[in-house]
Design a protein that fits this description.
single chain, about 300 residues, alpha+beta, four-stranded mixed beta sheet, 6 helices, globular
Length: about 300
């Protein structure tokens, strides 16, 4: 007999297909997909959800492989109710972003209010919440450089505020529990010139377009850059540029991107990534670490 789930004012879908929601367009369903109406709806749901049921956040699906068997538990996806961005009520150098807002929206809002320092978010294809969780970064900056604090709903439904120091940030990692859901973030910029900020955002956009396979089914940067190395260069030197496994391929445009050529399974994409790791280890002795999150039962 299945465990009854708490009542909610938001949308709760059983056996929800996830492939359409992730960039790779592959993978199995979530046992449940929950789209809360607001923070209190999320709090109430988690507070009353049996502790044996796993909870995990789903952002824009850009940095994610959903395994073909799908994922048990509840995937939480934050919609429009969590995407507002406003100026801080007391500090004109800070903005408050809903965790469901795309990074590009945060960068654009800061630019429109003549705040510099968040331009790098133009180059990050996920939500603010996802960026906070993984200390996302690009173009020489990362979230730990601009985060003041984050509001987080814990698995027991409590709402807690994490300062930047509380986040225990390191490279592409935070100390947040896996089942904690970031709901908003306060970011600090510095007063700047709108035209200069706009030019920097355009430079980042143009550089991404020229160097990354943005118009394909991809997941973003696949591997973390090891100390003293560039992941793409290690992959290239190991002879993996263009390497295929079924319908999955190492991008010829940027070797640290895997792409789905059409009908690739998540199993093919993950197996290709692991084959790349094996070849890089054999060639250079370096252990590549996944930057892309993989969720679901291992095949």
């Amino acid at each position: 007999m299945s465990t009854p789930l708490p009542k909610t004012r938001g949308k709760l879908t059983a056996d929800a297909p996830l492939a359409p929601l992730v960039w790779f367009k592959s993978g199995g369903p979530a046992q449940w997909l929950f789209e809360p109406k607001d923070i209190s709806d999320l709090q109430n749901f988690l507070a009353n959800l049996p502790a044996v049921i796993d909870v995990w956040p789903l952002g824009l699906g850009s940095n994610l492989i959903i395994r073909d068997s799908g994922k048990r538990g509840v995937a939480v996806r934050l919609g429009k109710a969590f995407s507002a961005i406003v100026m801080h009520s007391e500090d004109p150098e800070m903005i408050v972003c809903g965790a469901g807002a795309p990074g590009i929206s945060a960068a654009s809002f800061a630019r429109d209010n003549a705040l510099a320092g968040t331009e790098f978010l133009r180059g990050i294809p996920g939500t603010v919440g996802g960026a906070v969780r993984m200390n996302a970064g690009a173009y020489g900056r990362e979230m730990c450089d601009i985060l003041v604090s984050a509001d987080v709903v814990m698995r027991d439904g409590s709402l807690q505020t994490y300062s930047r120091d509380d986040m225990q940030y390191s490279y592409r990692h935070s100390g947040l529990p896996e089942d904690a859901i970031v709901v908003s973030a306060t970011l600090r910029g510095t007063p700047g010139d709108k035209e200069v900020i706009t030019a920097e955002m355009k430079r980042i956009a143009d550089e991404r377009e020229a160097s990354q396979p943005l118009r394909t089914k991809t997941g973003g940067s696949t591997f973390k850059n090891p100390d003293g190395h560039k992941a793409w260069q290690l992959v290239d030197e190991a002879g993996c540029r263009g390497l295929k496994m079924g319908q999955a391929q190492v991008s010829e445009k940027h070797c640290n991107f895997l792409i789905n050529l059409g009908g690739a399974s998540s199993g093919e994409i993950e197996a290709l990534g692991n084959e790349v790791r094996r070849r890089v280890k054999e060639h250079s002795g370096v252990d590549l670490e996944w930057e892309i999150q993989r969720v679901g039962e291992k095949p």
